[in-house]
Amino acid sequence: MNNTSNNTLINVVLEWTRAPAAFRLEFDHAKVTAGGINVGWGTNDKATDSFTFSSTDEMCRICFGLVAEGSEKTGIDAVLRVVDTEKPFDVALSDILKQESGELILSEPKVKMYAEINWFAML
Length: 123
What we know:
By secondary structure, the protein is mostly beta strands.
């Protein structure tokens, strides 16, 4: 990831109706600055961006902050991938951000994704 001022701080939330047993996050053109499990019974290995959940019949939510390459003006290039799981998926953060509500819902797996630019932190 480049270290220019053309980076954007983005808050991201992923919420599963039923927690997956395990998964790992990968990012293109973005770096995780903070985050972890907000709702659910599980663990987060921050060194590998891996998550495991012991209660897979309940909702889970993870929240994190990113430094993503690009801007609203030039385009945000960041892509989030959920891998090493039964139902992997990927999504461009720009696809979530362009939704009027900042929310994108997948039907399979049943997951809601929220994203917002953290304008306050960039002041």
